[in-house]
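Why should sequence recovery work at all? Because a backbone constrains its sequence more than one might expect. Tight turns favour small or flexible residues, buried strands favour hydrophobic ones, and helices have their own preferences. The token representation captures these environments compactly. In the example below, the structure is given first.
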């Protein structure tokens, strides 16, 4: 019977051997250059940057395994410093829209080379408008909610197919429960909306909303 202490030592030895082997494997495949991709946040003026390695015609994300033995080290910068540095990804947070500069430097331990890339990215209000909701008070999709960063004022006007204004609101986040200006749930059907913001750089949005429900569920 193998003693627990011996088992722990063997497990540790195996883990260390794996790390050393992994580090050696990465060192045998030098990269050609680096880049990074942007992952914008729909609810705030945040953007996440993910470092990528380019080998030949292949572009792939860096992973935790690439940092074993400091095979690659990362330094992010730009118009603004990220919330946390030194990782293969970084998160930047801004207070306003605009075109911002992002930089990444990656040091490859096996070759002592430093790869640097600079990119620009537009931080914009991301506005999400649903096209259907069911105001039947069942707790599922009961509200028409226009999601945005919440830092800009939104203004919406909703019309029936005959052109009658049934709802309007001006707020950072639009929430409509399906009631018209008289406080009654609107009839089922298709409605037309016009959405604007207080930012002249953002064009007005227009589209259709489909309202569905079972008449028996509605109690005005």
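From this structural description, the recovered sequence reads:
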């Amino acid at each position: 019977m193998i003693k627990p202490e011996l088992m722990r030592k063997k497990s540790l030895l195996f883990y260390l051997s794996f790390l050393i082997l992994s580090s050696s494997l990465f060192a045998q495949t030098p990269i050609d250059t680096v880049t990074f991709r942007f992952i914008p946040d729909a609810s705030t003026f945040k953007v996440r940057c993910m470092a990528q390695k380019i080998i030949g015609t292949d572009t792939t994300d860096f992973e935790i395994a690439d940092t074993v033995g400091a095979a690659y080290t990362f330094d992010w910068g730009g118009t603004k410093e990220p919330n946390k540095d030194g990782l293969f990804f970084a998160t930047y947070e801004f207070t306003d829209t605009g075109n911002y500069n992002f930089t990444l430097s990656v040091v490859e331990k096996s070759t002592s080379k430093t790869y640097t890339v600079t990119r620009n990215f537009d931080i914009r209000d991301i506005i999400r408008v649903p096209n259907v909701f069911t105001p039947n008070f069942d707790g599922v999709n009961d509200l028409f909610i226009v999601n945005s960063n919440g830092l800009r004022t939104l203004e919406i006007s909703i019309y029936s197919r005959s052109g009658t204004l049934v709802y309007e609101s001006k707020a950072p986040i639009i929430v409509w429960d399906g009631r018209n200006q008289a406080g009654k749930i609107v009839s089922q059907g298709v409605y037309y909306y016009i959405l604007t913001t207080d930012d002249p750089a953002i064009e007005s949005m227009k589209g259709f909303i489909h309202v569905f429900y079972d008449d028996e569920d509605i109690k005005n």
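A few observations help interpret the result. The chain has two domains: 30-123, 132-217.
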